[in-house]
UniProtKB/TrEMBL annotation:
Residues 42-181, 214-359 form the SIS domain. This is Glutamine--fructose-6-phosphate aminotransferase [isomerizing]. The lineage of its organism: Bacteria, Bacillati, Actinomycetota, Actinomycetes, Micrococcales. GO terms for biological process: amino sugar biosynthetic process; carbohydrate metabolic process; fructose 6-phosphate metabolic process; protein N-linked glycosylation; UDP-N-acetylglucosamine metabolic process. It is found in: Cytoplasm.
Amino acid sequence: EKGGYDSFMEKEINDQPQAVGDTLLGRSDADGRLTLDELRVSPEELKSVNKIMVLACGTSAYAGQVAKYAIEHWCRLPVEVELSHEFRYRDPIVDANTLIVAISQSGETMDTLMAVRYAKEQGAKVLAICNTNGSTIPREADAVLYTHAGPEIAVASTKAFLAQITAAYLLGLYLAQIRGNKFQGEIKDILADLSKVPDKIQQVLDNSGQIKELAQLMSETGSVLFLGRHVGFPVAMEGALKLKELAYIHAEGFAAGELKHGPIALIEEGQPVFVVVPSPRGRDSLHAKVVSNIQEIRARGAKTIVIAEEGDDAVKAYAEHIFYVPETPPLLAPLLTTVPLQIFACELATAKGFDVDQPRNLAKSVTVE
Ligand code: F6R
């Protein structure tokens, strides 16, 4: 049942090309029209939406943060992302024109379920992105978009995360289609780029020997920092969460731009820092800014471990280790850059002799508030 792998976690990391491929499957036609017929809310209802609010916890909330960048860019709709357990306790502003997107792998997370109920009481429409057929959150939601990652057994989420991001991209493209924000040709191009992602994830998996070796060498490390910017920011947060959960190592994710506002004080000789580097083809010189962050921490003795796009030579001089992922449009990059971080955490925890499928103190679905 572990498909020849030593753990479900390893299997599920390796299932990711299929999880993303299956989530895309059958959801658009040959002309690039999205056909989310299963959605159960009418295009008219979705046209009247003036704000999206994503509610989720943990890894699922990081998927929501990735989605925010894409949906705002494609649909010109404001997207807020909020932890479900914070939402209900702060008098949030939601009404009939708010679309709540509740993201939950299990569909049973009590914090998210209670937030969904509260939002419905306020008159908001709720759409669930969920991996578990017939679970409570999609049953109570007005609409559901299932992720087709297959059952996720390991407690820490991996393939469900990539499938959630994929489903959220489809939702964003669908909203852009019905609201007329994008030409059909552009939507078709993005879908074509998405359809190439599963093979690219496979390439990352096939080239994971080096990151595994590094993880084994670092099994005595006491603390690891993760930096990212734009869509790389939630990826950094997710990389840190995986390492905490699986290897019980202190890990923090930061927005790279925050470095000089405080976290750079943590940098001392030998401090390992992962940096998720934006594509050099992206907008607004973000690439150059992150490269200069790498220089700054390197000058202070950090051990810099860089995840960058193939062909990005500018980072080479400042990276102690560098892992390349295939080229893809910047907004889609999290589907690739997350994978080495998952592998790193899984491998390091295994090297420490921990049970990666059942980390201490954690449950697969958190059914209490
Ligand atoms: C992290 C992890 C948790 C879940 C969170 C939400 O690896 O698994 O952070 O992502 O508990 O769970 P769902 O998505 O089932 O609502």
